């Protein structure tokens, strides 16, 4: 099948997002301090391991459709919707977890858009890949929200 330009642009924006998120999670993995150090240090690592798998799947799906995934840090920064910042000011454990929740919500909501888009275009394989990614992120979102004693942030857009 021929993948639309809109789907390719969407997928590439996600390549940028997951590329950035991968590094950002390392920042938290390295700098986290406090009573939950052992838990969070390990949990952030688990999440960046998941993120790198999703990044790779999306980039390779683009290549299978003659797309050109971004492959430099500069491109990731230019095209990501997530934001990062240098670690110049200490963050509490809870601030880090809240940042991860906020980013997961952004990623999840963008995946829902991509799921709709690929469904409309009959791009079943990409659709399936995005649903699998969403299933992983939903679970992570539940983990991190529960850590803070919070309910899940509801989806603003439908599955
Ligand atoms: Fe490590």
Automatic annotation (TrEMBL):
Annotated Ferritin/DPS domain residues: 11-151
PROSITE patterns assigned: DPS_1 (PS00818)
Molecular function, one GO term: oxidoreductase activity, acting on metal ions
A Pfam family of this chain: Ferritin
UniProt cross-references to InterPro entries, sorted A to Z: DPS_DNA-bd, DPS_DNA-bd_CS, Ferritin-like, Ferritin-like_SF, Ferritin_DPS_dom
Gene3D superfamilies: 1.20.1260.10
Similarity comment: Belongs to the Dps family.
Protein name listed in UniProt: DNA starvation/stationary phase protection protein
Species for this entry: Sporolactobacillus shoreae
């Amino acid at each position: 099948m021929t993948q639309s330009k809109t789907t390719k642009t969407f997928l590439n924006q996600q390549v940028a997002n997951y590329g950035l998120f991968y590094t950002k999670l390392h920042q938290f993995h390295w700098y986290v301090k406090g009573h939950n150090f052992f838990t969070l240090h390990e949990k952030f690592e688990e999440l960046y391991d998941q993120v790198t798998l999703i990044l790779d799947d999306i980039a390779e799906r683009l290549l299978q459709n003659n797309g050109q995934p971004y492959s430099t840090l500069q491109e990731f920064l230019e095209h990501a919707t997530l934001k990062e910042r240098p670690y110049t000011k200490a963050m509490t454990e809870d601030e880090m977890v809240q940042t991860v929740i906020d980013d997961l919500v952004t990623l999840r909501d963008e995946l829902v858009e991509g799921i709709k888009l690929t469904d409309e275009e009959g791009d079943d394989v990409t659709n399936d890949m995005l649903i699998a990614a969403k299933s992983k992120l939903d679970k992570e979102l539940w983990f991190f929200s529960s850590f803070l004693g919070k309910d899940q942030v509801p989806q603003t857009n439908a599955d």
